[in-house]
Amino acid sequence: MLLVYTWLKIFIPITILSLAVLVPVNWTNSTLDNSRNIQFSDIDDLSISNIPKGSQRFWAHLGMSYVFTFWTCYILLKEYGIVASMRLHFLASAKRRPDQFTVLVRNVPPDPDETVSELIEHFFLVHHPDHYLMHQVVYDAKKLGKLVQERKQMKNWLDYYELKYERNSSERPTCKQTGFWGLHGKKVDAIDFYTSKIDKLSKDEARERENITTNPKYIMPAAFVSFRTRWGAAVCAQTQQTRNPTSWLTEWAPEPRDVYWENLAIPFVSLTIRQLIMTVALFFLTFFYIVPISLVQYLANIEGLEKAAPFLKPLTEIHVVKSFIQGFLPGIVLKIFLIFLPTILMIMSKFEGFISLSALQRRSASKYYIFILVNVFLASIITGTAFEQLDSFIHQSANEIPKTIGVSIPMKATFFITYIMVDGWAGIAGEILRLIPLITYHLKNSFLVKTEKDREEAMDPGSIQFGASEPRIQLYFLLGLVYAAITPILLPFILIFFGLAYVVFRHQIINVYNQEYESAAAFWPDVHRRIITALVISQMLLIGLLSTNEAADSTPVLIPLPVLTIWFHRFCKNRYKSAFSKYPLQEAHIKDTLERAREPNLDLRAYLLNAYVHPVFKDEENNNRVSSDEEKELENALVPTKRQSCKNTPVSSKHGCSPSPLLPS
Amino acid sequence: MLLVYTWLKIFIPITILSLAVLVPVNWTNSTLDNSRNIQFSDIDDLSISNIPKGSQRFWAHLGMSYVFTFWTCYILLKEYGIVASMRLHFLASAKRRPDQFTVLVRNVPPDPDETVSELIEHFFLVHHPDHYLMHQVVYDAKKLGKLVQERKQMKNWLDYYELKYERNSSERPTCKQTGFWGLHGKKVDAIDFYTSKIDKLSKDEARERENITTNPKYIMPAAFVSFRTRWGAAVCAQTQQTRNPTSWLTEWAPEPRDVYWENLAIPFVSLTIRQLIMTVALFFLTFFYIVPISLVQYLANIEGLEKAAPFLKPLTEIHVVKSFIQGFLPGIVLKIFLIFLPTILMIMSKFEGFISLSALQRRSASKYYIFILVNVFLASIITGTAFEQLDSFIHQSANEIPKTIGVSIPMKATFFITYIMVDGWAGIAGEILRLIPLITYHLKNSFLVKTEKDREEAMDPGSIQFGASEPRIQLYFLLGLVYAAITPILLPFILIFFGLAYVVFRHQIINVYNQEYESAAAFWPDVHRRIITALVISQMLLIGLLSTNEAADSTPVLIPLPVLTIWFHRFCKNRYKSAFSKYPLQEAHIKDTLERAREPNLDLRAYLLNAYVHPVFKDEENNNRVSSDEEKELENALVPTKRQSCKNTPVSSKHGCSPSPLLPS
Fold this sequence. Notes:
By secondary structure, chain A is mostly helical. Chain A contains 27 helices and six strands. The termini of chain A are close together. Chains A, B: Its main location: membrane.
């Protein structure tokens, strides 16, 4: 949202300037007219290729490159400041939230004499005597979660059969007792069967629940520790507790609904090893993903299939089947892989051990961006697989690489215009039409939906996936910056894309999607870093391109540009980054004082009691109470939404006039 | 000290193993015997060059490379742990130090209504109400410092003339009133002259002193804030105070004698710009230092001199002068530059704005290491200036660079053996003889020393310069690692160097040098990083060398090695680095509790009152009191030292049996 808005702010002046200055400069040459017989198209008349080698006109491109960089950096600096202050304002805004008082403690060392809970209590009573309030240990509730899930399913079936019985009470419904999807087995009375099953599961569940609370084996060495004041929590989250920096690790607790419970108990050494493994895996995924795909594609062609499964031979001899396999299957295999790629990356990020959904999303986005950069941007410019490129880059000298890429950039302009229209514009149109969710909904409705609750679930629009959509939009930003100085005619297409994206995502976020969590713009430093990366790439490529065009006297003038850009990034990081990882003591203190004055009798313990309980321990009623609580607050929201689902209604930020301006993308 | 000890621990097993395994493997080939007519020496018989191309024997070198890496990493891991725990133990040891209670606050924002001092007091009284004790603002005392210095000089002259008068009271001594070094001007009575001068200076000083304390213009926006408890100081140093992360910056106060006062008031934006400028300057210094040197060398030869200064012509026609200029001057110009290099780097670091002497030393050491790496190591292997290398590296492909360097490495073994003997062994011998300080002392004694105080000052051995000596020793470590798998015969030479260095520096540090400050091993992470750099360089070069020797099937086995080494570095950094930048709350709390129990009536305010006063404000007597205070504690030191100067006697660390084990190098 804010992202696309920033991009628009950056790109509108760049587009105007680039069209006004560079198009005439390029157009009034006639280099390409003389060599028209080669593969140049009309668009190239307006691009840098139309300028003769060694011309003094390259100074215009060079100057514009400086102008674009400074403009982008200026907007970025301003936006970083705005986002940081909005984030602090949001955190400081009057609403009380459990995560303001709570710190997540991990890697609590084992103690032979005390339980984890006692140990944590004693530790914080000693070292934060004036501020410690209470704590909530983390239970290993995987098994319980499964049981609860199963019981819910059974309850759903029971509801279905009871409904059936109500409608037609002449005959008690029956079902098949066991086995594969209830397709075979002995016929039994369905209502009795499911009632008894639910009874059994309830008993199991109760036993497991008791087990968890009594058996210390189920207690993980992590806890949510709450403090009397925000000041106390801010101090504890930002300091090191003990001599060993790998035990008693404290950090801000994520929002309760943002916690990824499974990763809370990973020990420190294991974390670093997991990160190493995933870095290597990402490298292989990016550069060698084509290997398994080719393997599957090979298996998926006729000969491969016939070899692997000879019994299919009669089938594959049929003409239609044969042409389908030969024509579509290889493409579909690749498409399926690309559709599942964000999920694969998310699984990789989960394996790395991040503890909040927002961090997982951010990490997946970084991985996805690298993949897109290598396999879409580079692979389109220099044809060949990523692996082949890697090989050729290793064998090229450091100053050859930007040249190789730079030279082919102007020639690919037409391709990228098509790409923007097919992938970008169509993608946005698809987003507003939501065709796939519509189809999925109707499929689900016909085959799976049995009760009202099922229908509600099938209609759930889900939440926007930052990890999958932001890197894709970043690609267009990169294209815009790279072509701004080279083929300015590409810019209006990107501008239209951003305009559409702004309108559509604004609508979707306000009216369609649920908000899974509130990260308070924690993703911004990542976005900023990727924009800087795009800037540096565009500068390097321009240097490469100019140096092949015998503009030898002007090219060295460009070299300070990447140095300054990287320095600018460091400056911004020092200046603003801490707003995204730390909570200033002054703010905490002011809020504490205000609250004490306003609500002197506030029972904070009661407020925090159930905030960080594992979701399976929360009762249904409890859940409803919270959501109706939030419903009440929604009345203050500035923009009335058209949504009907009352699941996870978002909290408005109350800062700007634009609603939820901090939502991802 | 500890550094050299670590290196010995790493190198003794490597040397033994390398000599036992690789020398026989290399020696039992006869490749070089067949091509004896080329430029190979006897040493090459024992090196990797003696193995025929494509031989299976390369597996031995490969295996040893893994063994060396794992051994080095194992020792490093253990040492990092030991150093970290020694540091924490040192910080936690029973002695009370002012810096444990004190935090340095910088970038205090200006306030129209309050003075800096009031503003600081109010801020901390509000935000750290239970812990704030007092603060000491920082004055801009540059001018006062100059005055004090001048008065001291005058006092010295006065002492000298009074001594002269005492010895020969028949005649009052005279001196020349003004001008260049007192060589011309009117003759006046010396004692009267200097007495009046001192009077004038004293008055100026008193006025300046009053000026500083009353005029708010002299107060810099920085202060040393002291807290009632270590816990309070630890909390304040590790947290962010306000919303703006560039104002009210808090960090641990360095030891009082470690503070670099001039840099305390540099604003944030200026800091980042200074760093950018110095990074660029370092790049040019490293790669283009030869340009100004050549210019001076050109001017310093006969023709240049005659052109630049024609009036010298009769002089340069004399044979002796001519041959001196032609033979020595160019070499001496380079030597003088190299002698002044650490000073130049230190000035650069000071410009970057670090606030403690130890940080300045660490930063200079990093710069010096980069310079040595490029201009000694690389320049010796690939002959040519650094600038020529840079040019050739840019034009080579990424996998060609290790090959180019790797191939020439075995050929340079003889050169480096000579280098180790000439520069390393002789340097150590020079260190123990302290020839230059001896000569300087006698020169000073003959020409400059006038009073007893002057003699004491001339005898001052100075303190060990971490920034100049550590990177030089690191170079030998790099050589050892690089040649361990290639020409093992080089290792005994390096081992002798480290052995000598250990004995000599141990003696020098205990008996000769003064300790300027106590950094409590804060330099260790830097040393660790440089050792890891050396490891990775040695691995890359081995990969390059093996890939040219047609050992194609074995080379890829080496690729995981640098990846694992870099990961190991990250692991160590996460595991131990925080011990060098943070002070755990638990430790602080334990120490506070102990102290409260032992000395319930301690007047902390009186203890801290003058701790962080600018040195020019401290009186002479005050200074003496402190040093006699420390003298008393010295009685507990385990090793009696032979030093006589009572300046800055070090504080023993009381941890191991080795005295001051944490001293640099």
